[in-house]
Design goal:
The chain is an alpha+beta fold and 64 residues long. Strand 1 and strand 2 form a beta hairpin. InterPro entries: Ferritin-like_SF (IPR009078), RNR-like (IPR012348), TRASH_dom (IPR011017), YHS_dom (IPR007029).
């Protein structure tokens, strides 16, 4: 299991929507928009703390 560096969703590498090699490491993505966001600014996603949510993140309310 891998983690999408943009949305932090767990991704099964064999089922990933996209993958990118960056600085010798392979990153897997749940969607093409997440891949595109990563490619636009990889350092932003790699340097933020794990607990921080991506820009525009809105938590879901229970029972949604």
């Amino acid at each position: 299991m891998a983690m999408d560096p943009v949305c932090r969703m767990n991704v099964v590498p064999e089922r990933a929507a996209a993958e990118v090699r960056y600085q010798g490491e392979v990153f897997y993505f749940c969607s093409i928009p997440c891949k595109d966001a990563f490619l636009a600014n990889p350092r932003m996603y790699l340097e933020r703390p794990i607990a921080e949510h991506p820009p525009g993140y809105t938590p879901r309310k229970p029972n949604e």
